What does this fold into?
Amino acid sequence: MTTLSIDHVSRWFGNVVAVNDVTMTIGPGVTGLLGPNGAGKSTLINMMGGFLAPSTGSVTLDGQPVWRNEQIYRHIGVVPEREAMYDVLTGREFVVANAELHGLGAKAAQRALATVEMEYAQDRKIATYSKGMRQRVKMASALVHDPSLLLLDEPFNGMDPRQRMQLMELLRRMGDEGRTVLFSSHILEEVEQLARHVEVVVAGRHAASGDFRRIRRLMTDRPHRYLVRSSDDRALAAALIADPSTSGIEVDVAEGALRIQAVDFGRFTALLPRVAKEHGIRLLAVSPSDESLESVFSYLVAA
Amino acid sequence: MYDPTVARLTYRGLLGRRRALILGALPLLLLVIATAVRLLAGADDQTAVNVLGGFALATMVPLVGVVAGTGAIGPEIDDGSVVYLLSKPLKRPTIILTKLIVAIAVTMVFSAVPTLLAGLILNGNGQQIAVAYTVAALVASIAYAALFLLLGTVSRHAVVLGLVYALVWEALFGSLVPGARTLSVQQWSLAVAHKVTGGDLVTSDVGLPTATVLLAAVTVLATWYAGRKLRSLTLAGEE
It folds into this structure.
């Protein structure tokens, strides 16, 4: 059982506050650290990994301080976000070096390479690897010593769907084995697919914590705004406003489009195409106008 | 206190293609100059002293030191790959000491060896001049490697600062301001060279005891401080 405790942690750089009084406990299983870009996820992960001192507060792993305690790395595996990783080496040389630095040998390295299914390319130079291959070799280097805590900073960035699925499968397995796995992401769907437990960070603050479904519901229950263009905007507007799923419609004459505010997301998305069909109206464009993560998160913070 | 894996990672990075080219260029230039001088002017003790003192020890050794010393750690800190060393149960001083040993070895190979060869070409080690400057280069390699490794650990502009020190302080100030010479790795190593030749061909502004103490002090302090800095090295995120 490995538990990472973040206790009233703040971190500022000069007079910019990157992380503001965050308290959370990360236990076994997969936890997603969710937040928009620039929310302080990397700062938080760097503090969890002992690469950055908290300005105030403490980060401990089963009671042991993480900062300035190199022995703690016997229990922590780190997959950094940055790409750089001794490109002149082959994948195998790199993972073997990581194993040796843990006092382990080539056997441990080989096992880790097998775990991430990189044996086929292990003798190629890292410089020739694709993003997904690099990610997997990084993963192997973090797994050589069989750590009980795994920290991954934006591990899915730049991966193609197949690689993403493979890595998710691997992380799920690690979580099921009882390891404490924490990964950060700014993409809702990634977190949804992988983590049951979610910690949400927005603008350096701990915005929400808990079961993903509850947080997702909070996110989808918020009012949604859409921009819709059709063959007959006014007829469509009249038909839509009659339904309780819509709370407001503006005919934007300059844009030649409708701005619709929907209160019941599920019902509205089913209603719109049906109404259009019944009235013989062609839908030319339907686009969510406030789907940026920032707006989703800011709603969440307010909730 | 020495980790073979850290050493391997360090020298493979250090002797990567581009850096190896820079490291090899200056020694090659020294050998070319030595050969040309010998062919044009013949063997002469004073000329040998001028070339070895003026170019090899004053310019080549510190520049090789800058490249090897800062290159042993600076690029890893810059690109973030140092995280793979830091996320291991390794004592931070072990990392620094290992990198220092590699940096010293590389500086010695790329500065002392060509100095010896150039000396042999210039006057066939007459008056022990070639050996004296080689010893000076060896001694200076240790201090430069330690100094520039520290620079590489504390600053992102290590190469520029190193060049400023090597060229402005050692070369310019050293020749203009007498006091600056007391605080110059070059003068310290010349004191050692003076001891080796025994004569007055090679001279230094600093006495041997002072030079020895200062060389040792700078090397030890720089290494200790670099280890300390690495212990609290902060990795900034991308954001």
User: Anything to note?
Assistant: The radius of gyration of chain B is 18 Å. The interface with chain A takes residues 3-6, 8-9, 12-13, 16, 79-81, 83-92, 231-239 of chain B (CB under 8 Å).
